[in-house]
């Protein structure tokens, strides 16, 4: 068996390979810093490069220092080896295909969707209350502090003016832990029956309230009509799973208080990503009437709270 290129990394930063090893296969994430970056949407800058370099440092730290806490309920690939060199990184991981998660999906059934929500709930419960040492202080790749260029070009002036307040609301949440930071459908690997999932790509794992992952995941799977019609049912699935996960993993934490806080923050988390997206790619398909409605409501609420 020869090595297989699974995918190229974003902006020409290397590739992910499947490599034969000891009668089986392993996954090698081979990061090589390009002399000239080619961003698909034209965002070339030293800030962008440094953010990507930091993201691979974070991913290495995640696998070395934190990933072992994940169990079968929030499955991630096992770290086999990693190294840093002047030109980049090499991270060698368990092959999830061989471990029973060979399926990648571009759309999901309700059962598959719910399996991902359960994974997120277990992940968030596992790291609730942890300080993100070695990781992003605030996780997600769209965090405001790391995206000043996209904020600068944002044409929605009311959203732009509210950006810091939106960020503050999320960062001041009482219940914090880790977020995956890029919990889109493409980063979940499914079992053949679709009942079990594992997650990959931990470049933007860091501190935060888990509802940010949930809002982002929902938006990665559903169109605006489905988002609106299924919002309550999906949140109920997630919060039911989170309640059970906290009872098992962190029984001293008040699940009712977590759920009440994070439920209220769902539109805020959605608006936070919407803010980034409107600056980064104003014509993106995810900018729709549902997102605009949620954002207007959040901006209005924040404006009114400042006036009182």
Summarize this, please?
By secondary structure, the chain is α+β, with helices and mostly antiparallel strands. The chain contains eight helices and nine strands.
Entry keywords:
single chain, alpha+beta, Phosphorylase Kinase, domain 1, Aminoglycoside 3'-phosphotransferase, Chain: A, domain 2, 2 domains, 5-stranded antiparallel β-sheet, two-stranded antiparallel ribbon
Unreliable runs, pLDDT <50, ≥5 residues? none
CATH architecture of the largest domain: Alpha-Beta Complex
* Overall geometric form: globular
What's the helix count? 8
Order of strands in the sheet with most strands: 1-2-3-5-4
CATH homologous superfamily designation of the largest domain: Aminoglycoside phosphotransferase (APH), C-terminal lobe
Q: What is the CATH class of the largest domain?
A: Alpha Beta
Say what the CATH topology of the largest domain is. Aminoglycoside 3'-phosphotransferase, Chain: A, domain 2
Count of discrete structural domains: 2
Strand content: 15-25%
Give the end-to-end Cα distance, rounded to a whole number of Å.
67 Å
Strand runs, count: 9
Mean pLDDT over the full residue set: 93
* Rg, Å, rounded: 19 Å
Biggest sheet details? 5 strands, antiparallel
Provide a descriptive summary of the structure in words:
- The protein has 308 residues and is an alpha+beta fold.
- It folds into two domains: 4-94, Phosphorylase Kinase, domain 1 (2-Layer Sandwich); 110-307, Aminoglycoside phosphotransferase (APH), C-terminal lobe (Aminoglycoside 3'-phosphotransferase, Chain: A, domain 2, Alpha-Beta Complex).
- 45% of the residues lie in helices and 16% in strands.
- The chain has eight helices and nine strands.
- The chain has helices at residues 46-66, 110-126, 148-152, 157-171, 211-221, 224-249, 255-280, 289-307; strands spanning 4-8, 14-21, 24-32, 79-85, 88-94, 177-179, 188-190, 197-199, 206-208.
- A hairpin with a 5-residue loop joins strand 1 and strand 2.
- Helix 4 (157-171) packs across helix 8 (289-307) and helix 6 (224-249) crosses helix 7.
- The mean pLDDT is 93.
């Amino acid at each position: 068996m020869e090595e297989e290129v699974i995918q190229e990394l974003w902006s020409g930063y290397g590739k992910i390979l499947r490599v034969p090893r000891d009668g089986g296969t392993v996954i090698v994430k081979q990061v090589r810093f390009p002399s000239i970056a080619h961003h698909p949407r034209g965002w070339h800058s030293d800030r962008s490069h440094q953010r990507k370099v930091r993201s691979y440092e974070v991913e290495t730290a995640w696998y070395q220092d934190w990933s072992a806490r994940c169990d079968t309920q929030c499955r991630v690939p096992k770290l086999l080896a990693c190294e840093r060199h002047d030109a980049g990184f090499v991270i060698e991981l368990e092959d999830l295909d061989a471990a029973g998660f060979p399926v990648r999906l571009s759309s999901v059934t309700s059962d598959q969707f719910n399996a991902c929500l359960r994974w997120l709930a277990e992940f968030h419960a596992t790291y609730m209350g942890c300080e993100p040492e070695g990781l992003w202080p605030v996780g997600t790749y769209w965090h405001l502090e790391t995206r000043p260029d996209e904020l600068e070009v944002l044409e929605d002036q009311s959203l732009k003016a509210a950006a810091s307040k939106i960020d503050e609301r999320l960062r001041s949440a009482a219940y914090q832990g880790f977020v995956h930071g890029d919990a889109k459908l493409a980063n979940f690997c499914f079992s053949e029956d679709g009942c079990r999932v594992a997650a990959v790509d931990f470049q933007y794992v860091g501190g935060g309230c888990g509802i940010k992952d949930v809002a982002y995941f929902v938006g990665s799977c559903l169109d605006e009509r489905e988002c609106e019609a299924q919002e309550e049912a999906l949140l109920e699935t997630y919060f039911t799973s989170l309640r059970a996960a906290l009872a098992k993993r962190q029984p001293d934490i008040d699940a009712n208080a977590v759920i009440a806080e994070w439920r209220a923050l769902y539109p805020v988390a959605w608006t936070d990503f919407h803010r980034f997206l409107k600056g980064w790619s104003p014509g993106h398909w995810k900018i729709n009437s549902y997102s605009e409605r949620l954002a207007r409501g959040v901006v209005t609420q924040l404006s009114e709270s400042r006036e009182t």
